[in-house]
């Protein structure tokens, strides 16, 4: 039966054409000024787009009905979204304050877990004239529960209730505006296991309705805004709104205001700092942090602030996997090739990128210092006794990383 024989054909085709126009416009942002004009990073911009094109309709349609919720990983080793940090996993589920939900799970051994109920997404960030970040972000945390606060059985199994009548434990309230669960888990030592989670609406008894033409049209419009928004807004939205933790005019150094620590951050359960780096082929950058308590993560990202290849490369470090120098200072070397130091952060061949710091279990602000040096002179600028590794040891470290990341995602 040809086009036009069904009543909704015109609307469906128009929606698809709009989506294709949005996708075309999204691709044009691969050539923005913020993305370095070199072949590797131009290609990576399109990879960033195609990875998210692959999940656009999972977010816009397949998991979108809050009456039939599903938990969705929206970053993985092969799918990155701006601002994600290696050694985290990120999951979400669309919900509604009209319903009550039950999550069943088994607590893993990951060091940190945070489940947050997110409220409405305003057009502008409250108190500012800045637009909210693109969907599915931009919403405001309403309440959260940390892994340590979840009561479990002896084997780690638990039930967590979302919305509905108040409960004395393992309960998160909702509001009429509640729209999403945001689930982040952070890993320290290799071999830590993930928390398994499954969600259902309480009282769900009927099958999920098949998508109507109207619902499909809505999904295509949402997906179009998603792909165009992520390509347009990363990284510039962060530059504009990150309260000093991200400054594109100050390369190779953390800005003076290094920590974001307001009420919203407390509900997210973290503090943050951010640096933009740029290295010539013969340069390296030494990053120093005075060692402090808590659970911190350093993670490398590309121009669009998606995490680098954490499955195959040493692009992230945590306390359990970092060597601390005898003077109680943590030193990392960002370099294009392996300098033979334990704490090497691989650029994966990029000329420009991002280094993000997260502090999850301490409110103590960190102190950072950086030094841009010649790659051939790196060892001359490091402390005597800096931990080094041989090529054989590096290969073993990479394999340990590879196996641990696969364990986290069940791949």
Could you describe the largest sheet, including whether it forms a barrel? 5 strands, antiparallel
Q: What separation lies between the terminal Cα atoms?
A: 42 Å
Our estimate of the beta-strand percent is 15-25%
**Neighbour order of strands in the largest sheet:** 1-2-8-4-5
Main structural class: alpha+beta
Q: Count the DSSP helices.
A: 6
Order of helices and strands: HHEEEEEEEEEHHHEEEEEEEEH
> How many domains comprise the coordinates?
2
Helix content: 10-25%
Description:
The protein contains six helices and 17 strands. With 411 residues, the chain is α+β, with helices and mostly antiparallel strands. Helix 1 packs parallel to helix 3 (213-233).
Give a quick rundown of the structure:
Helices cover 23% and strands 24% of the residues.
